Amino acid sequence: MNDIAHRNIAASEEQQVFVDAVESWAEKELRPVARKFDQADEYPHEIVEQMKELGLFGATIGEEYGGLGLSAWTYAQIVVKVASVWMAPSGIFNSHLIMASAIERAGTEEQKRSYLPRMATGEYRGSVGLTEPNAGSDLQAIHTVATRDGDDYLVNGNKTWITNSLHGHGTLLLVKTDPAAEPRHTGMSLLIADKGPGFHVVGKLKKMGYRSIDTCELNFQDFRVPRSQLLGGVEGKGFYQTAGGLELGRINVAARGAGIAEGSLKHALRYAQERSAFGKPIWQHQAVQLKLADMATQVEGAKRLIEQAARKFDAGERCDLEAAMAKLAGSEAGAFCSQEAMRIFGGYSYSVEYEIERYYRDAMLMCIGEGTNEILRTVIAKQLVERYRI
Predict the structure, then answer these.
(1) pLDDT of residue 369
(2) 180 backbone dihedrals φ, ψ, rounded to 5°
(3) Which of 52, 147, 204, 283 sits at 20 to 30 Å (Cα–Cα) from 339?
C-alpha cells in the first residue's frame, strides 16, 4: 500500500473518531436539555460554547485557516448524529459554515485570512442573507440594493428567515448591485456584511418548530459596507457564488432530515417494545411492524443518497443532481418517519412528556429549506434529461 493510501486511511479513521465523539457529546449534553430549550424557545448559549470547544464551527473550513478540514461525508455523518438527538443546534453551525464555504471558495485571499480563522473558532459566527419577504426559491426576485458610494456600498432592503442573525456577528448578504441588469442574475453580488449602523435585526420569528434558534427578519437602511467586502472583489458573481454553496447546503439539510428520521425510528422502536396493547407489546402487531419496516428503509435509503452526493462533492465532481436527490429523500424521510412515530406513540405523541412531538414539529422545515421539495423535483427532472438526452 502506498503512502497516499496510508494517509487517506489514517485521515478517514481520525475523522470517524470525531464523528463518534460528536455522537457521545450529543447524547450526553444535548439530549438532557433539548426539551427544556425547545419548550422555552431559549437560545442555547452554553451549547454554543461547547460546540466551539468541539470545533464544529470550523468543521469544513480548511486546516490552513484553522479549521478541521472535514470531508462533506464526515460532516454529513456528524449532522445526522446531532439531528437524531436535537435538530435545532445543527442549524447554528450549518448556516455559519455555508458562509465560510463561500468565502473559502470564492473570496479574495485577504477576505479568507480575515474571516476564516475567526469563523473556525466560533469567535465570528455568520449567517446567509438570501431570502426576502417576496423572494424565496426565486432568488433573482430580490429587492435589496447595494449602491456605490465612494469606497463603500449603501445597502437598503429587507431579509427574512435568517438563522444566526440575532446572536451572530454578520451575514453573507445577497444584493443587487445593478438592479437594471438583464439577465437579472448578472446584477447580483454577495457582500460580507458585519453588523453595524443601519443593520437592524427587527425581531425573532416565532416558529412551530426549530425553536431556540435565532431566525429573524433583517432591515437595512443606508447600511454602509466597504467595497473591500464584496465577495471575490468582482460585481455580478453573487448568483453563481450562491448556487455554488447550495450543494453543500442541500447535503446538510438532507443529513438533518435523515437525522430526524433516524431519531424518530429509535424512539418508535423503543416505545413499541415498552408499550403493550391487547396482551402483547405493540411491535408484535402487524400494523406497527409495517410502519417500523418502512421507516427503517427510508432512513437507510436517505443515508445512502447522502453518502453518494457527499462523496462526489468531496471528489470535486458535479453533484447538483445527487445533492437534490439526497435533500429530497432525507427531508421526506424525516417528515414520514416522524409522522409514523407519532402514530405508533398514539395519544402520548401529543404530550410534551415524550420527545417525538418535537421531531414532528422540526421535520417539515427540512422539506422547505434550501429549496422546496417541489422545486427540487423539477431540478432533478431537468438534470436527468440533461444527462440522458436522446
Answers:
(1) 87
(2) -90, 0
(3) 204
94-133 pLDDT per residue, tens: 999 999 999 999 999 999 999 999 999 999 999 999 999 9
Residues of the chain where predicted confidence (pLDDT) is lower than 70: 1-11
Inter-residue contact 251 to 327 (CB < 8 Å) = yes
Active site residues: 370
Residue 267 burial (10 A CB sphere; 0-12, 13-18, 19+) = buried
The C-alpha cell at 161 is 428567515
Q: Report d(CA 129, CA 350) in Å as an integer.
A: 35
**Around 343, how many Cα atoms within 13 Å sit in the side-chain half-sphere?**
14
Contacts of the segment 310-314: beta carbons below 8 A, 24+ positions apart: 310/71, 310/72, 310/73, 310/75, 310/76, 310/251, 311/72, 311/73, 313/72, 313/247, 313/248, 313/251, 314/71, 314/72, 314/73
Which position has the grid cell 405493540? 282
pTM above 0.90, yes or no: yes
CB 139 within 8 A of CB 242: yes
Between the two ends of the chain, the Cα-to-Cα distance in Å is 43
**Cα 220 from chain centre:** 24
